[in-house]
Specification:
The protein contains three helices and no strands. The protein is mainly alpha-helical. The termini are far apart.
């Protein structure tokens, strides 16, 4: 499956030196991949797909936190 290849590539991305616009793109890409996997998961209920979605969601949350920056004050 092409989606599984995309997931592995996404999970292997190093976050060192990534610009803010790249983080936004990565976050959107993660959301897109999770939605695709979710549609597949609805049909066959494969627990492996659920684990992939969890991993993607964790990485996406880390990207989102870095994108928002640190609060001042």
């Amino acid at each position: 499956m092409e989606v599984l290849k995309e997931v592995q590539e996404f999970l292997n991305i190093k976050m060192n030196g990534v610009s803010a616009s790249d983080r936004i793109q990565l976050s959107r890409n993660a959301k897109r991949i999770v939605l695709i996997i979710n549609e597949i998961y609805k049909k066959n209920k494969d627990p492996e797909l659920m684990e992939l979605m969890k991993g993607l969601t964790i990485k996406k949350k880390r990207i989102d936190v870095r994108s928002k920056g640190r609060p001042t004050g």
